[in-house]
Amino acid sequence: MGLRKRLINAKNTLRVPLEEVTAFQDKKLQREMEKLNRKPIEAMEKQIAEVEKKIKLLIKEDDSLRHLFDLVTSVDGVGEVVFCEMVIATNEFKLFSDRRPAALESLLAIQE
């Protein structure tokens, strides 16, 4: 998840400034900058997809994680990313003696 976050941040570091200067920058210069950034952004998107694929495989291959994933993602609006953040933050909910309140507290914290 840490690698995924870093890749997303790096991709946004390249992409966002291009969007911010659209109204102020010469169109030709903007196209050149977009062209220069296109390949690194595409490479990062491929890396992000690969990391997400490995995370899904890890969840699928681990019985405990798969069970937790099925339970936690049964809540509307909770997907893979929120699940992973919850599992990491709570050490697979082992930091709590009663998992139900822990899951609720984690969901509320993430939604804020």
What is the makeup of the main sheet?
Answer: none
What is the assembly state of the chains in this entry?
A: single chain
Share of helix among residues?
A: over 70%
SS field, number of helical segments: 5
Output the radius of gyration. 19 Å
Order of helices and strands: HHHHH
**Number of discrete domains:** 2
Q: What amount of the residues lies in strands?
A: under 5%
Low-confidence stretches: none
- Overall number of strands: 0
Structural class: mainly alpha
> What does the average pLDDT come to?
84
Shape: elongated
Distance between the termini: 20 Å
Give the topology, please:
Layout: H1 2-20, H2 27-61, H3 63-72, H4 80-90, H5 99-111
Helix pairs in contact: 1-2, 2-3, 4-5
Describe this structure in words.
With 112 residues, the protein is mostly helical. The chain has two domains: 1-61; 63-112. The protein is built from five helices and no strands. It has helices at residues 2-20, 27-61, 63-72, 80-90, 99-111. It starts with a helix and ends with a helix. The relative contact order is 0.09.
Summarize the structure.
The chain is an all-alpha fold.
What labels would you give this structure?
mainly alpha, single chain, 5 helices, 112 residues, elongated, 79% helix, 2 domains
